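tool_log.txt
---
The assistant was asked to compare two proteins side by side. It first ran the structure predictor on the initial sequence, then on the second. Raw inputs and outputs are pasted verbatim so the downstream comparison step can read them without reformatting.
(1)
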Amino acid sequence: MTKTVRFFTVALLTILSLTSIASSVEEESATELAKKTQNPVADLISVPFESNFNTGAKDATVYVLNVQPIIPFHLNKDWNLITRTILPIINEPSLFSRQGSAFGLGDINPSFFFSPAKPGAFMWGIGPTFTLPTATDSRLGSDRFSMGPAAAALTIEGPWLLGVLVNNQWSITGWGRKPAVNQMLIEPFVNYNFGSGWHLSTELIMTADWEAKAGHRWTVPLGGGVGKLFKLGRLPIDTTLEAFWNVEHPDYAVDWQLRFRVTFVLPAFKR
């Protein structure tokens, strides 16, 4: 059995086991649950499956499926630990001559946010983030172990949920000829919830590669989309479809991105 098949098997069994306990989710309105899925430090287990279709060089489309389990832990009456892990599964066609296609697991990115257990109107979390060199093909990863600080902050005002997620990572060790990592991510997000689970949303994933030459450092998208939370039996599922155009990006980077996310909402662990 190949590594890729084993990975998909473990992921499927994990989702099935989590789904089996979904009937214990407390009854909440679709709008309130939608807000929690939009909150990166919410006290709620969610498992987003995010499909990204990226088109750029040679009009080729790179497909990335990000499996992003978010699991909170109650440390004590004052603090929660929110874990957020991104497991990318990548299909990259041949983008340049003499370069073949590649498919497999990319670099896994776990983040840990310490967050107040009893937040007010302003919510926040802070902690470390890591990138592990787990790519099954060197073309799909950085060949570097990287780490750095991460922070999230947001507020909810009526139907509005506004916030930002920020981190910066530096490579600590690695191998191969790929350059050192010094990269920042800024992700502002804005959501407007209409009711009955419908919402407008935008999550602008902006990155800056400080190792690149001036004029080739920033990737800045513009765009947004629409989403709907519904229940399959007692299992809440949030769906979002967004499209983005990169108004600033390095040469040979993607021009636009279509993002479709399906989020399964599950009960949080109780003390």
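(2)
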Amino acid sequence: MSATRGQLGRPKDNWEKGFAALTKFKARKGHCRVPEENSKLERWVRDQRERADTLSPKRKKRLNSIGFIWDPHEHAWEKGFAALTKFKAREGHCRVPQFFVTRTYKLGQWVWDQRFRADSLSPKRKKRLNAIGFDWDPHEHAWEQGFAALTKFKAREGHCRVPQSHIEGKYKLGQWVANQRAKVSAERRKRLNAIGFVWDPHEHAWERGFAALRKFKAREGHCGVPASHIEGKYKLGQWVTVQRAKMPPERRTRLNKIGFVWRAS
């Protein structure tokens, strides 16, 4: 009789032992995320998750009271989202560097994982990430940031001739502009062209001088520009002097057509 009672009581005793061990673990670690290395307790924890539908309300309540993690994957995602939300509140954006670590949490890796798994993320998670301005494509965001800075420069200066060392606010716009002169997509090229982007600064500078010379010729009737002459705010006399050095045949032909003076008087 006593043996039967002992056998019947054993599962309850085992559960209480497991709960006591988890409670002790929580008191020591501050959480219920039991690692696989703690094989005996980890097996007990896994067993509670697998039997979640059949556990008594009383046991569920006791587990919940110490912060039991029913879905470790969901918990891990929420931990990452909370860290990203905190980062956004502090930095004002979600552009987390790939290897960024906040305290001991690898937030940069978590953010990278969300981008990598974008196609398989649930609509709910995508919606929550979008709500805080998540950067799905950091390269696209970086380009848009540069384009916005160039648009601001153009609005203020009236042109897109950005000096290579120019910094717009804290943004290295000159460097970004130089990078665009390499290969870009057709869509980006179209957007840059729409605001008057200068693809070849040397060619643009020459055309600017040639336009100023044509304006001078139309007004004065000749191309004998004094060396010190300034056309508007443009140092046309200096430009003309430079043209008298060696230059491509195509430019020489264009200058000859408007009566360029090759020898200074």
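---
observation on (2): Confidence is low (pLDDT under 50) at residues 1-9. Residues 2-29 form the longest helix (28 residues).
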